[in-house]
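Why does residue order matter? Because the sequence determines the fold. Keep that principle in mind as you read this record.
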Amino acid sequence: MGGAPDPLHRPDPPPPSEGGRPAGSRRPLVEPVFDPLPAHVAVIMDGNRRWARERGLPDAAGHAAGVEAVRRLITHAVRRGIPMVSLYAFSRENWARSDEEVTGLFALLESAIREETPELVATGVEVRLLGRPDELPETTRRSIGAALDGTRGGSRLKLNIAFNYAGRTEIVDAVRAVVRAGVPADEIDEESITRELYTAGMPDPDLVVRTGGEMRLSNFLIWQSAYAEFISSSTLWPDFGPEAFDDALSEYARRTRRFGR
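Structure:
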C-alpha cells in the first residue's frame, strides 16, 4: 500500500461533536454455564485514549491496544457460542477529532483487516459493516470490502463492525429508503423501517455492554436496543478480556427480561 495516503475528506456537512494486565488472563478450573445466553451482544468499546494517557502513551497506542482487545473478544465469543457480536468502532461523531487521530484510526482498521482476515475465515467469522462506507477514504473502503468478501459464509460468529456509524443517521437512511420505495405515509410502520435499517434481517441485541464506566448509548443501535439489557463496565476497553466478558454474561443471565409485560 505504497504512495501518499488518500486525502481525508470529511462528511459534508460534518456531524456534530459529541458534547497493568488485561482482564481474563486466568482461566477458571470449571467452565461457567450462562443461561440464557444472549444471541446478540453489542459492545461500545470505550476507554482507549484514557488507557493510553494513564500510561503516558500517545492515543495511537491506546487504539492499537484496543485492537488486541477485539481479537481477544472475538476468540472468546466464539468459544462461548455467541452467534452475533456488534462492535462500535468509529462513530460519525468521531470525525470531530483531529485529522491525525482520524487518519490513524483508518490506517489501524486497514492494517487489522488485512492481518486478521485469514484468521477470521479459519475461525468461521463473517464480517459485516454497519454505517456509511461511501464517506470513507477509498483505501479504507477497499480493505473493508476485501474483508467482507473474504469472510462471507462464516457460520460460527456474525461480527458487525459499526464504522462511520450513527444511530440517528441509520434511521434517517432507513426512512429515506422507505419513502423512495413509495410506501404511503399511513402505511409506514415499525416493520417497514426495520426492514431498511443497516441491521435488516439481524436479531436485535439482547445485551449492550459499554466499557470505560460511562452510562450512555452514544447514538449506537438506538432503534435496535429498545429492549436490550445494558451493562456498564468500569474496565477500559484495552483491559476488557474474557473474565470481564463472562462477568457481563453472568449479569445478563441473572436479569429477568419483561419486554413491557
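The beta strands are 40-44, 84-91, 125-130, 157-165, 207-210, 229-232.
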